[in-house]
Amino acid sequence: MTDQQTNGAAAEDNSPQFSMQRIYVRDLSFEAPKSPQIFRQTWEPSVALDLNTKQKALEGDFHEVVLTLSVTVKNGDEVAFIAEVQQAGIFLIKNLDASSMSHTLGAFCPNILFPYARETLDSLVTRGSFPALMLSPVNFDALYAQELQRMQEAGETPTVQ
């Protein structure tokens, strides 16, 4: 009986584990270089979105993933505003093979962080007195697959930091 409990606990220790520990804003910025003049113009915006992710191993099986959303909105040729949020999370991730760990950090965690970053960015923009900025959902699995393909073509190997 004791052997079965010990073996069961050992098997349980080797099973994959994932849990969110904390989600937080790491950095936040907003700039409206042409205000207040920009508010007196006809609003015909063009939006440029840049997104990036990075991950860092912390102590033990903890990992920090940071999703950065940078938005530049122009009205005609003038920059109306620039907004950036670094939405971060600390995740406990255990007992994954290298490929699964890479996918979890490169796609799964950013998928969790994106709604938080999108809401923070939208709130920031409306506080700047601009119309709401409702970003479309992002397919991080597709972006991750594209990055893996790019790395394979370049002869690089994905690494988990």
Describe the structure.
It is a single chain. With about 160 residues, the protein is α+β, with helices and mostly antiparallel strands. The chain has one domain: Bacterial Protein-export protein SecB, CATH 3.10.420. It has 3 helices and 4 strands. Strands 1-4-3-2 form a 4-stranded antiparallel beta sheet. The radius of gyration is 21 Å and the shape is elongated.
CATH superfamily: SecB-like
> Helices and strands: which structural class?
alpha+beta
What pattern of helices and strands is seen along the backbone? HEEEEHH
- CATH architecture assignment name: Roll
What would the CATH topology be? Answer: Bacterial Protein-export protein SecB
Q: Identify the strand order in the major beta sheet.
A: 1-4-3-2
How many distinct domains?
1
Could you give a short account of the major beta sheet? 4 strands, antiparallel
Low-confidence runs of at least 5 consecutive residues: none
Distance between the termini: 41 Å
Gyration radius from CA atoms, angstroms: 21 Å
Family: Belongs to the SecB family.
Pfam families: SecB (PF02556)
Organism: Pseudomonas putida (Arthrobacter siderocapsulatus)
Protein name: Protein-export protein SecB
